[in-house]
Specification:
The complex is a heterodimer of chains A (344) and B (382). With 344 residues, chain A is mainly β. Chain A contains no helices and 29 strands. In chain A, a hairpin with a 4-residue loop joins strand 23 and strand 24. With 382 residues, chain B is mainly alpha-helical. Chain B contains 14 helices and eight strands. In chain B, the strands form four sheets. Chain B has a two-stranded parallel ribbon. In chain B, helix 1 runs antiparallel to helix 2, helix 1 packs across helix 5 and helix 13 packs antiparallel against helix 14. The longest helix of chain B is centred in the first third of the chain and has 22 residues. Chain B starts with 5 loop residues before the first helix and ends with a helix. Classes of the chains: A mainly beta (344), B mainly alpha (382). At the A-B interface, strand 22 and strand 26 of A face helix 8, strand 4 and helix 10 of B. Chain A: Keywords: Cell membrane, Cytoplasm, Fertilization, Membrane, Repeat, Ubl conjugation, WD repeat.
């Protein structure tokens, strides 16, 4: 395992892995982490294929409880492939959202009870297209889910109960959605910013409220954008050619371009308290970057903090496990464990 | 996930199958004319127009079990016979080889180059048969038509679909172990050196731009790998330098190919889930098989041409031992015609398998549009 320390920056060491019942599927953004600040528990969600595994663990990595979720569409029909599993933290509740071919399902945060499901509409799909949902994020009291057509479904979530309603469908993309990220708008209550990405690399920045408005559209360059993050008015996007790009969310201007990886990026994550960005790719590497804004020019700056090589593993998911980026976890294709790292 | 995956999966697995059979035919000293006949018959069946038509229709991938049945049929398209143990080993080699190729493809689009490598080699096997050569070229044209303009995003989805198909397969192949492309735990080595994919920059550069879009600063960072720039892009035309070596023939007559059955006990749960279903194959899979194999025109071997049995192992005893010691979770559970079970259903299946002619059934009055419908209709009546 190659490691590099940068002066005062922390180094990370490998912690005990958490075993999985089934290996992780070769999807993007294939790890979701829910940190419960009240207790010391951590929830992890990983997609295996036709099932997803939800498990909780104690601080040391000892697995406590686990559950497998599937999408049941009918008797005698094999369950469809799941594309993503993700926790949505809303003002009054936390919901677990599962996207798959043909369906979106929402559960209570521990996966014990399904509270809502939505069948995808085939619309004007040709026979050469599979229907699927992919890309999940919470925006104030909405949950936004992307689809194969490029449309984004906006669900209105009540403070409790199952009366979830499809509020709006956003048009802005022409190719399948890959990822969605949100952040509370600075200095404004009840408003959030959202960035959506698709298979052709197009990024859309939205402002949410009762109605979502498209603020900026950043064109693609022929390469998919599997993962995207939003932090303090900066859009961080990871691309299929291994690049990480940082844009200004308001103007859409490109500020930084990093040749970060040698294969497609599969996941990006942010530690919002410190502005750390985590990038993981199919090239077996994980990198941690420090984002900042120049106080005079307002331009975005970035510094490389740390790199880690997970030998012979095509990574498929990566998340920070705490808001200050002291620890992170990764998943890899064919790997039946969640690898954990924490700083020394 | 992608409904355009099956042709690539089928052609590449078929290509690997031919590489192995070619090697075994030479290793077992089968006379040249017989060996050529076997390869010609299989290739001709593979690239049959009706079959290719069915194959290229947009459709989901089915299970490894279902696909295995198609290769079983294909391998027996000629005078050659394979015992189950040899067929199992053949399928193991085919799947692990293509899994390796997919994993190591620099770009998702490069799986098309891998397919072209297989087709180029297949054409080498049938150089003296212009009719079959024409069939292969026709398939080449179809591939270019369908995949030539797919976006990078669509290829990434094809790649993910293929990897899901190959998930949890960790059979160790002796050639791979010796060449150090596979670890002793069955996982493939993913090198962090060598040329980057075409269109990707060598990692390690950070570029800063001003609000006019001009580059104002360039710094480096230590990436950790040892990559170099790509030299040139492989050719996607009918003829050309593919550059990529993945998908070319790695077998030679002198290299025995062994597989080691390693039970991947950690993933037992996922395997048993597949095997728990009451029917060996779901209705949708039977439908798929009927449709696909209905398009296969297997030449009936007329005349006195004697058949022979090919052994994928070094001795008959080894083959017998392999059959007995194959771990349960790695069993492909091929459809075996059960004489005791449903007579009607078995006859229909057997007809599709081409084992014997079916006599006129009074219940079926008109020709159904597809054999799958026949099958389903029959099952519904049960």
């Amino acid at each position: 395992m190659w490691r590099r320390s940068l002066g005062r920056e922390r180094m990370y060491r490998r912690e005990r892995s958490i075993p999985l019942r089934g290996s992780a599927a070769a999807l993007s953004n294939n790890l979701s982490v829910l940190q419960l600040p009240a207790s010391d528990l951590m929830h992890f969600g990983v997609v295996h294929g036709p099932s997803a595994q939800i498990l909780s663990s104690a601080p040391g990595g000892m697995p406590l409880a686990q559950r497998q979720l599937q999408v049941k569409v009918g008797v005698g029909v094999s369950p469809p492939l799941i594309t993503q599993v993700h926790w949505c933290v809303l003002p009054f509740r936390v919901l677990l959202v599962l996207t798959s071919h043909r369906r979106i399902q929402m559960y209570e945060s521990d996966g014990s009870l399904m509270v809502y499901w939505h069948a995808l509409d085939s619309g004007d799909a040709s026979s050469a297209q599979t229907l699927f949902a992919r890309g999940i994020a919470a925006s104030v009291h909405f949950i936004c889910v992307g689809t194969w057509s490029g449309r984004i479904l906006v669900f209105d979530i009540p403070a409790k109960g199952t009366n979830i309603v499809l509020n709006e469908e956003l048009a802005g993309h022409q190719t399948p959605i890959t990822d969605i990220a949100t952040e509370r708008a600075q200095g404004q209550d009840g408003v959030a910013d959202m960035v959506t990405a698709d298979d052709s690399g197009v990024l859309c920045v939205w402002r949410s409220g009762t109605v979502f408005t498209l603020l900026t559209r950043i064109p693609g360059f022929g390469v998919p954008c599997p993962s995207v993050q939003l932090w303090q008015g900066m859009v961080a996007a990871g691309y299929g050619n291994g690049q990480v790009r940082l844009y200004d969310a308001t103007t859409g201007a490109l500020h930084v371009q990093i040749s970060a990886h040698a294969r497609t990026i599969c996941a990006l994550d942010l530690a919002p308290e410190v502005g750390k960005l985590l990038s993981a790719a199919e090239d077996t590497f994980v990198h941690i970057w420090k984002l900042s804004r120049n106080p005079e020019s307002g331009s975005i700056e970035v510094e490389h903090c740390h790199g880690e090589c997970v030998s012979d593993t095509q990574l498929c998911g990566a998340r920070f496990c705490d808001p200050s980026g002291c620890s992170f976890a990764v998943t890899g294709y064919d790997l039946a464990e969640i690898l954990r790292f924490s700083s020394v | 996930m992608s409904v355009r995956t099956l042709p690539l999966l089928f052609l590449n697995l078929g290509g690997e199958m031919l590489y192995v059979l070619d090697q075994r035919l030479r290793a077992q000293n089968i006379p040249g004319d017989k060996a050529r006949k076997v390869l010609n018959d299989i290739i001709s069946t593979m690239f049959n127009r009706k079959f290719m038509e069915e194959l290229f229709k947009p459709q989901e991938l089915y299970s490894k079990k279902a696909l295995r049945t198609v290769y079983d049929r294909l391998a027996h398209a000629s005078i050659m016979r394979l015992n189950q143990a040899s067929m199992d080993k053949l399928y193991d080699l085919m799947t692990m080889a293509f899994k390796y190729q997919v994993l190591l493809c620099p770009r998702p689009k490069d799986v098309l180059l891998v397919t072209f490598n297989h087709l180029d080699s297949i054409k080498g096997f049938i150089q003296d048969s212009p009719t079959i050569l024409h069939q292969v070229d026709e398939t080449f044209r179809q591939l270019t038509e369908i995949y030539g303009n797919l976006s990078a995003g669509e290829f990434q989805m094809i790649r993910q679909t293929l990897l899901i198909f190959f998930q949890d397969l960790h059979i160790r192949v002796s050639t791979f172990l010796k060449d150090k492309v596979q670890n002793s735990n069955g996982r493939f080595v993913l090198p962090v050196s060598g040329p980057v994919p075409w269109g990707t920059e060598v990692p390690g550069v950070i570029r800063i731009f001003n609000d006019k879009g001009e580059e104002v600063k360039k710094t480096g960072f230590k990436h950790g790998g040892n990559y170099v720039a790509a030299q040139k892009e492989g050719a996607f035309e009918l003829y050309g330098d593919r550059v990529l070596k993945l998908g070319t023939n790695m077998y030679s007559a002198n290299r025995p190919v062994e597989t080691h059955m390693s039970a991947t006990s950690k993933n037992l749960a996922s395997k048993t889930q597949e095997n728990i279903a009451p029917n060996p194959l779901a209705k949708e899979e039977l439908n798929f098989l009927a449709r696909l194999m209905g398009g296969m025109e297997i030449k009936k071997t007329s005349g006195p041409e004697p058949g022979f049995r090919l052994n994928l192992f070094t001795t008959d005893e080894e083959e017998e031992h392999a059959a007995l010691s194959r771990p349960e979770e790695l069993s492909y559970e091929v459809i075996n015609i059960q004489a005791t079970q449903d007579q009607q259903r078995n006859e229909e299946l057997a007809r599709i398998m081409g084992e014997f002619e079916i006599t006129e059934q009074p219940e079926i009055t008109e020709q159904s549009t597809s054999k799958g419908d026949d099958l389903l209709a029959m099952m519904d009546r049960l």
